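Async update (no meeting this week)

Hi team, since we skipped the sync, here's where things stand on the single-chain job. The sequence we agreed to prioritize is pasted below, unchanged from the tracker. I ran it this morning and attached the output directly underneath so nobody has to dig for it. Comments welcome in thread, and please keep replies under the output.
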Amino acid sequence: MKTLFTSVLLLFAVVFCHAQQGSGVITGKVIEKMTKASLPGATVKLNVGNRYTISNQIGDYEFLKVPEGTYEVEVIYMGYQSQKQSVTVSKGGNTVINFYLEDGAVAMNQVTVMGDRLRGQARALNQQKNKSNITNIISSDQVGRFPDANIGEALRRVPGITMQNDQGEARNIIVRGLAPELNSVMLNGDRIPSAEGDNRRVQMDLIPSDMISSIEVNKTLTSDMDADAIGGSVNLITRASPNGERISATLSTGYNPIRDKMLYTGGFVYGNRFAKNAIGMVLSGSYNNNVYGSDNVEAVWAKDDFGNTFVEETDIRKYDVQRIRRSVAAALDFKLGENHTIYANAMYNWRDDRENRYRMRIDNIAPQYNASNAIIGYRGRIGLQTKGGIDNDRNKMTRLEDQRVQNYSLRGEHLITSGLDMDWAASYSTAREYRPNERYMLFRQSNRTINFTGSPDYPLFTTTNFDANAVGLNTISENTDLTKESEFGAKLNFRLPLSVVDGQKGRLRFGGRLRIKDKDRNNNFTKFEPIDDDLIPNLGQIPNSYFDGKKFQPGSQYVPGLFASRAYLASLNLNNPAVFEATDAAAEYLALNYNAKENILAGYLRWDQDLTEKLSAIVGLRMEHTRINYTGNVIEEEEELAGKRTSKNSYSDWLPSITLKYQANDDLILRGAFTTALARPNYYALTPFVGIIAGDEEISAGNPNLDATYAYNFDLMAEQYFKSVGLISGGFFYKRLKNFIYTYSDRAYTTSKFANDFPDLANPIPAGEQWAFTQSRNGESVNVYGFEVAAQRQLDFLPGKFLKGFGIYANYTYTKSKAKGVTNSDGELREGMTLPGTAPHMLNASLSWENSRFSARISANYTAAYIDELGSDTFGDVFYDKQFFLDANASFKVSKVARFFAEATNLTNQPLRYYQGLSNQSRQIEYYRPRYNLGVKFDF
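Output:
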């Protein structure tokens, strides 16, 4: 590393000392004339040799080290009329020249008819076309074309991306078949920390879609990017200061049939420039209040010694949910003369997730056999549990999950000389998940005769002669969980012209990166017992709530039943020692608490060289040094804290890359790339803990021997663009991962297996019982490969004004993976394994129609079934089932400043479904029903 930076400094000194004399700089901005919006991704050409540059996210462009003289500058932008201007460059000067482009419709150009939707598509495709790497871009206008409430829903439309849902909303991102931990999420180029306690996943449902200006999905990396993005990196770009005053507001309301409740949304944007355009500012905010719920059925399947398959545990769950999202953002820029600009950004996202869950569980299911060892009946234990919280202004008798993510950044761009520019950035981000005073109340009755009246697709046990007065109190508990993560980041980058091919453009970039991360989880858990047993004698003699099967989405045959009411649970004065005896349940949380510190120091070289007017290459090398310091709890006898254990580790990774781009003609681009990337293990997965939850018969264990995953990536892509603002593309990708990490699961974990794995610990599993065991492990290697095709275009070649208004947006991705090194519960290698998260088929299709006032769209999204969790064998593997979503939206412009819109999502009432082993063995089925929204938007 020392040698690398010494070489960079020597090269910098040589180039700086021999900078051309008598040269200057050309800078400026590319703007849309009608809306005054900045146009990113514009091609700006100089009429000398192969000199060109690309406008950045805010429309700015720059030519370094231009010899004195007079030149012609031309701007080319798909969907807009090209424009030329003359410019004179003086020695040491910065000549500023701005361009105001008109779309094709202004000159009655028949090739392009630019509506609001097409303008957004033009901005996205121009950026995508001129990116040096393989990228997908979504502009805010494109996000608005779909009824997507959060960023996760918008990302679902991108080729190669599938999302995993939580309570009906897209949360976890899978890119090209690679799990969320193998991808990165950034905000304006800064990493977003995770609010979840045991992984690195960023909750994509936390950020409202209307707070983002554009989304970049980088499917290949260059050396100036963070390396921990094997699948890809997602960069969420917030609004930048406008070129003039902008005022926008949105108000809407909607309806959730699942609970017959309303939803409300509001948003605003205000931006302007001040001090003779030297200072820019934009403020934006968003509010969403959504009251809904879900109906859920779950089952765990088992196989006995006689080959019989049966359900050993089943749940019927009713969820009542309220999610409130609040988001505010601010962006400022300060122009300190023509050569220096300072930017400041801030964003604060706050989501309250309130939930009551009513769960009827039948477990400890024991089959009854005849003389032929065939199952003729069952006996089991019935549990009726209420989840809620205390009654105050925050919890409101619910389980409150308070998640907050903040990001603050300051950066600068500086033109040092006519041949050298520099940029720097410093950022601080935090994420927090706080769950205060979360309460559970469980009533149980054991050894009941139960009847299996369902099917493998819809498993169901029923009981007869249920008597609530015979169902006694089992446990009352209260817990408070707190997870915090922070990250400080700093960057320093230099860029200067350096070409070894006469008449061709070349650039050398080099710089450094620092990331300092700190993650902490601090949970507690307390159990309570009434001093007087007559206080809560049984379920039938307390305030309760009954839920029948009417309107229950999996079917009216599912009856959740009788539960302690949420108001009664909230009213219990658990902290009164005269009424309740409190016991610290250390086994529930001590092994979960930890602190992790991770420092990453990186340096890179990146050389961009045009070899001909059509062929260009990027060669790069990145080095990342990682240092980890982890502190966890040492547990003895399940509940006693024996001390703390600290583990330290450090390692370095060298990551070469090469990217090729061939511009066959103005509209056809061929791309190829070889890149390397890595994925660090989850913090909690590295800890030497053993977490035992005896009540749920579950054990999870850390693995301090986990290695980071290292990947070699190969990509090929062809892109054909249309002047009418469209694209047809297709490409292949191949990834080879070494030491990939997977979640090993054994649903038949016995006392002998525990004794073998953890001989120094007290064995919690009673003889004859089978518990569930999970642990992160390294596989040997995995190959992931596939292809993707995409098309988006306005069908302006069709005859007639009406038919020309139609447009299509479609993409399809195929992925396949082969994993080696996965073992079963006997330690034997499993053959033919795939990597969890690899969906073989992903399809998006959308048909739209638009004119100057009205637009409408119907959109479909399909993802095939894929393995989600590896079990101890094929019977225990858990799959995420296929999904098909159908959405529709329309808008009508009633004036120059106002438009009404209507949206409908999940028209297919697509459930979240998992299955175990075989596709007809349902593991979980959760329904949400459609959602409807109606509103108005103002743009002044």
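Quick observations from my side:
Residues 164 and 601 are 32 Å apart (CA to CA).
The radius of gyration is 30 Å.
Reply here if anything looks off.
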